[in-house]
Design goal:
heterodimer, A: 786 residues, 31 strands, 23% strand, disordered C terminus, B: 165 residues, alpha+beta, five-stranded mixed sheet, 5 helices, 5 strands, 35% helix
Chain lengths: 786, 165
Amino acid sequence: MTSFEVKTTEQDGQTQLEIREQAPGVTTWDESTSFSVVGKGVSRLEAFEKVTGRAQYSSDVRLPRQAYAKVLRSPHPHARIRRIDLSAAEAMPGVVAAICKDNIDRIEWYDGSAVFDDPVRLVGDEVAAVAAVSEEIAEDALRAIRVDYEVLPHVTALQRATEPDAPRARLDSESEGNVSGEVKTYERGDPDGGLRQADVVIDEIYTTQAAVHNALEPHGCTASWDGDELTLWDSTQSVFTVRQQVALALGMPEHKVRVIKQHMGGGFGAKQIAWKQDVIAALLSKKAGRPVQLMLDREAENLAVGNRPNSRQRVRLGATRDGTLTAIVADIEQANGAYQTGGEASNVSGTYQTLYKCENVRTVQTPLYTNTGPAVAFRAPGQVEGAWALEQAMDELSLRLRIDPIELRLKNYAETDQSDGDKPLSLPEGLALAYKKVVKAVGWNGRPENPESGRIRKGVGFAAHDWGAGGGSPPGYAWIELNSDGAADVVTGTQDIGTGTRTGLAQVAAEALGLTLEDIAFHLGDTSLGPYSPVSSGSATQATIGPAIQAAAADIQDQLKTVAANAMEISKDRLSVRDGHVLVDGDASRGMSVKQVMQEIAPNTLRAQGARIPNPDDRAIRTFGAQVAEVEVDTETGEVTVTRVYASHEFGRVINPTMVESQVIGAITQGLGFALTEERVIDHDLGIVLNPNLEEYKVPTVLDIPEMIQDPVDVPDLVANPTGAKGIGEPPLVPTAPAIANAITNAIGVRFHDAPVTRERVLEALANRRSLETNANPTTDQEQPA
Amino acid sequence: MSPTPHLPLSLTVNGEDHHLMVEPRRTLLDLLRHDLGLTGAKKVCDMGNCGACTVSLDGRTVYACLTLAVDCEGKQVRTIEGLAQGTELDPVQKAFVEEDAFQCGYCTPGQIMSLRALLDETPDPTDDDIARAVSGNLCRCGAYAHIVRAGRRAVELRKASEVTS
């Protein structure tokens, strides 16, 4: 049993339980450890179900008498509701329930709003919902609902929202103008002085677009009541968050709500909180007295359940001639939409504070309300936006100083977390190792000086990143039961959101127990199964839950050795467990299989629990990476083709190299979309989204992808936790877009400050430059935006 | 509003005959997912953008979300559920497992059906053929590079199984 201590933190007075001591017998997997299962590229445990179409996603739940629900959404970006008339919908044959603000109690939801609120504050805000025996009838019923709106002034553009005379997106907000929350200011040293003492100052404005997660499985759930107990099959990144939020909203004890998620068609951050449809489905199901499935359609998915907030960042970098950074200053505005949803913060400021060594840093991040969909964490939230600006500004600085971009970064290499008391990094050489790997893979020999001629221009670009959450943290729990047949049930409350969590953690379990992977039954994704688990976010799951499993397994192994020692009449110290066998040190003839040992005590089983201990107080655990992109720009069509991307990331020990590669190539592919094509487009006069579908919101296809070469640093981070592994889920997305942008600049000599770099923007920039050249004004700075 | 009239429909899905009454506006995708409980084909965009609902209709690949059920009278439909023989996977399915050609797996049934159709028509495809075959199948996890690799691997597996059979 692990010992713990109850602590009250000084800053916020919150009481925390801290498990201080590692469970006895946990061995740190250092460089000398030889592995049977960890480090192998085994197939996903659920691969068979997924390739045969048998994997049951939330959208695939089919229960007897199941009804289907649809949500009526506001067609206006901001409006009061004068009247809603559900009567025609309710009277329709096949309609089993209809709800709106008038026939249910007000249920508080995020940021002071209600599940059905008045006013509505974005196109797509929930107004009413119906359940019917078929999706078609539910659609008919929505059309029969009459709503009388009083349209209010709206603001959807970030820039407009900052202006003093702008309409207020939230009439109920108490803050000034459209500022939606705390303006986060960070400062160290003397940033203004640092800018003054610089030989060169880069001062540029970058913008990033609102990008939509567009996971292929939409948000949604199936709700079913059994008496006063509710079961939700939910497409969520956090079964326990949904349980808590739904129980709170419905005034139920948490144990009366069960949330299940076995398979999920992608989340990318957008499913890390409970959304309104979880409660709406539960209410409709209760009212109808039958199960109700409520899956969002693609339009709602694009409007109302999260997006990466668009940002505007003024970046100033100061440096001396030799490339030493004297100041980093970033003024950031961010459009958070109509509601602050909670979940992981989109911390754009973070990377400015930590990625490079610099004494003088200031970041100011201002979140703003707009009458658009509520922003929510999107894979590496904030970091993707920040890196777009910082890594291009660094590229610009390297051009201005005529210093190699990688040399410039090495010159300003951070070995501590400067934003957190200068704590040494757990693996200070991590980023340098990643630099080294890409330099070698590419054969980097300085940025090529490209001849400015020909229709197709080639370019090469570099970018780096850091990430603060991949080390994981408590709480994290695991239960293990070793059965009498020698196989183990490993139970956690986490979930596999498509990233391979089930498999990666089962590999840790098998290795730590000394069993084969076939002897592990890995359970997750069900609040009724067992221990609490936090949300799957931050790329933290492997490093949060893995060590908890390791701790429980160490306990089991110890118990198993006790039983085996008794059976073999031998000292316990001479025993070890590997690949399903209890081995005797120095006597190969005397071993027993785990099954044989367990038969000795059958029908008894061995049981243990493990908990994640805190990270070390005196070290900062981070993950890192570097990428090089090669592009070709067609100067006649404006088309950018990314031909090759090299990636090296540092995330501790690799548990499963095959799944790691899938994460990295997937992230690069998403980064390519962010760099070149993906953008939620809004008509700001009308306040409506023009491309809420997969026809016009352009995610990359198979024909867009480059050759991708990735080679992880793969050094165990033994300071981080005894598995040595950290997370790789989000980070490889971060450097891709700025690396591509830097490559485009290298190819055609134009800097693109605004993401995405569409063909239109490329052609426009080339045309601008041609007209500048025709005017032949040699003093004009061609690299400034128009 | 009066109830929508239903029409009789007979079709064969994965070798099994079905006789149903359906609304004229019901798509083949909703018929499979709701009336027949075949939830392998997925509803993602419901407007022919993403390919997650790809099935085979009389040997031609179609988007089930753009196909009306009543237009399938007398036709043969094959879905992802009809590919494996018991626990014996089709070579394309095997290749997807071996090459880790998916993460969340939501687009996978559509990708596999598109590739399977390619291999039926073009047993020796180029990489370009493989990419073209799945160019109408979106994958938000970005597994494309592995999907193309799985396409190549499936060709090898099919050839190997032809040699042994």
